[in-house]
Amino acid sequence: MASAAIASSSSSFINQRRNDVGLSSFSPNTSFYLSNAKKKMVSKNIVSVMAPQSQRTPSTTGSVKTGMTMTEKILARASEKPQLSPGENVWVNVDILMTHDVCGPGSIGIFKKEFGQNAKVWDREKLVIIPDHYIFTKDERANRNVDILRDFCNEQNIKYFYDINDLGNFKANPDYKGVCHVALAQEGHCRPGEVLLGTDSHTCTAGAFGQFATGIGNTDAGFVLGTGKLLLKVPPTLRFVMDGEMPDYLLAKDLILQIIGEISVSGATYKSMEFVGSTVESLSMEERMTLCNMVVEAGGKNGVIPADATTYKYLEDKTSLPYEALYSDEKARFLSEYRFDISKLEPLVAKPHSPDNRALARECKDVKIDRVYIGSCTGGKTEDFLAAAKVFLASGKKVKVPTFLVPATQKVWMDVYSLPVPGSGGKTCSQIFEEAGCDTPASPSCGACLGGPKDTYARMNEAQVCVSTTNRNFPGRMGHKEGQIYLASPYTAAASALTGYVTDPREFLQ
Amino acid sequence: MAAATFSSLHHNISISSSPNKPHHSLTSPNLIKFPSSQSINRSSLISKPTLSPIPTRTRAAADDFTAPATAFHGVCYVVGDNIDTDQIIPAEYLTLVPSNPDEYKRLGSFALIGLPMAAYPTRFMSPGEFTSQYSILIGGDNFGCGSSREHAPVALGAAGVKAVVAESYARIFFRNSVSTGEVYPLESEKRLCEECKTGDVITIELGESLLINHTSGKEYKLKPVGDVGPVIEAGGIFAYARKAGMIPSRAV
């Protein structure tokens, strides 16, 4: 299909009407497009944007099958339909439902109210309950909420409950994992071709495994608990083709910040985002998770990356359950296709107060900062800490601002203390962090990513400027309404910690 | 516009059927200040009260019959673009469990407390109150973006908000509003967050897809709700599924 070439000048615009072929679940009856009033500047890194396609005409005889996208295929299989098109509402069979301590108690309350106090969940092996948000706190209600989860799991004999009892020493809790989205992957609950729903917007992270994964609320979760089904609307798909060799100063966080900056925080609303291309294929599973994790920051319903050898290798020792990957047909219809030459991309940040407030890191070098935070489902995985350690190691200097490290899971925490950093002569991340003057890596949890109770470790309790590897920088996100958050990759976060200003990591990596 | 004009308006006002959810603020006998500085009794705006079309999770049962409302009327609170869930209900209050009636009520007291003071000097909630004087919320683009926390529409519903009118919605907030029946999510054709001001008196006529700003005297078309209509009319996902025969009626 011909692509409408876009000049690579900074004054180029995407100015096309998006002929939506269907909106996402329970969407208002609206057509979303970039109107003349909302022209969006296109960066030099976009090569082209595919022209919108005409609405598909479903076959009346059933003898002709229209090509389907990966998301459409997964939902078709889950709804036991041979064919689906964007805009169709279908009852979908859910493979995994995940909930945590913030939304679990409410979901359980709704389940019991609607299905009865003695009702049983639809499948005790398809429910995964992961306390992770407000764990290491003295907040009584937060602690009570974990108790509610525990009581429910005992009552229902839930197989996958990653409990914590001893809050003083997380290592004394072998079942405790930490951040749900990273734990889901590490524990083998993410499988190609499946439908995973979670009471958390960043459930879309699991799309990195070639599955349909999206966030839902308590009421929908309560419904799934009792039925194993949910009514979903099939989304149209935006395709993002990323080619070019990834420079060694970039991480997946830069790629997704580039995309969000390009299409805006509402650019993928009610839509699926599919990531393909040689750059994507070169990414590790953890980096792919970063890419899919922030799909929701563009408004996306879900993000998907086709499963490949990298996916299968990761899953080898994680799950013994059978799965079948699905892929977009050659003749699948995409709402739009964006092409990027990643070799030309530079390190990015999202300035306050929106994830689409994109800027080059080097353009923000005069921004004085008060702290750095490395953690969360977005930027607290093993490879994120290895990346930060690489910058600290290259500089040989000490940090100039408090630098907080919150490993996502217990496994990540152990990796931080045991894995040697390449080129360090056998030093671990923890040793390098200590030498650089960072705070001691904290107990694994969501931590200050979303503020939380007042005693949450590293919460922003005053109006400070923070460079963070997390996912959102709306006002108040990390605790203080007047705080300013610059979203960045672990490379950029570490570089900024070393200078006390927002800093391009190339200052230390080249 | 003279207050007399308002007293002759006859619109159906939705009244919550929940014993736990506070009644819509317009049903109280308190007085509203209108632009003319004259005051009229709020109850004179009500000709034929109907039960809320939006059963809340604190209701006795999700399959109770409720007659659909035809209109909402009240004072509006106006916010801008990208009002995310952290501004609607900051994370420190997420320890409150919405399905617990007492905690549901408390969530209302924190609704929109995350809005920055500088940008929103007029606060949505008065200190110490559980419900707001503003029953209609008007927003810009991408309203409710961010987390999937259902606490967001719940906090608004608990605070007495009946309808949200935005230029566009983030998917999960829209879906949660529909699934729970906490607030009625509507989309405007015009950018109403730049047309209306906090404190304006608004009527939303659902049948005509019309928003009337009595303070400015202007009328605006709203977009049709589309294929989500049956779920909204049923009162949420549980009521819809029961009506469709997918799940059995609740044993009371």
Automatic annotation (TrEMBL), chain A:
The keyword Repeat does not apply. Keywords: 4Fe-4S, Iron, Iron-sulfur, Lyase, Metal-binding. SUPFAM superfamilies: Aconitase iron-sulfur domain (SSF53732). Pfam families: Aconitase (PF00330). The keyword 4Fe-4S applies. GO terms for molecular function: 3-isopropylmalate dehydratase activity; 4 iron, 4 sulfur cluster binding; metal ion binding. It comes from the Eukaryota. This is Aconitase/3-isopropylmalate dehydratase large subunit alpha/beta/alpha domain-containing protein. One of its GO terms (biological process) is oxoacid metabolic process. Residues 90-359, 362-500 form the Aconitase/3-isopropylmalate dehydratase large subunit alpha/beta/alpha domain.
TrEMBL record, chain B:
The keyword Transmembrane helix does not apply. This is 3-isopropylmalate dehydratase. GO terms for molecular function: 3-isopropylmalate dehydratase activity. It is found in: Plastid, Chloroplast stroma. PANTHER family: 3-ISOPROPYLMALATE DEHYDRATASE SMALL SUBUNIT 1, 3-ISOPROPYLMALATE DEHYDRATASE SMALL SUBUNIT 2-RELATED-RELATED. Pathway: Amino-acid biosynthesis; L-leucine biosynthesis; L-leucine from 3-methyl-2-oxobutanoate: step 2/4. One of its GO terms (biological process) is glucosinolate biosynthetic process. Heterodimer of the large LEUC/IIL1 subunit and the small LEUD (SSU1, SSU2 or SSU3) subunits. Its main location: plastid. Pfam families: Aconitase_C. One of its GO terms (cellular component) is chloroplast stroma. Keywords: Lyase. Residues 136-187 form the Aconitase A/isopropylmalate dehydratase small subunit swivel domain. Belongs to the LeuD family. LeuD type 2 subfamily. It catalyses: (2R,3S)-3-isopropylmalate = (2S)-2-isopropylmalate. InterPro entries: Aconitase/3IPM_dehydase_swvl (IPR015928), AconitaseA/IPMdHydase_ssu_swvl (IPR000573), IPMI_Swivel (IPR033940), LeuD (IPR050075), LeuD_type2/HacB/DmdB (IPR011827). Its EC number is 4.2.1.33.
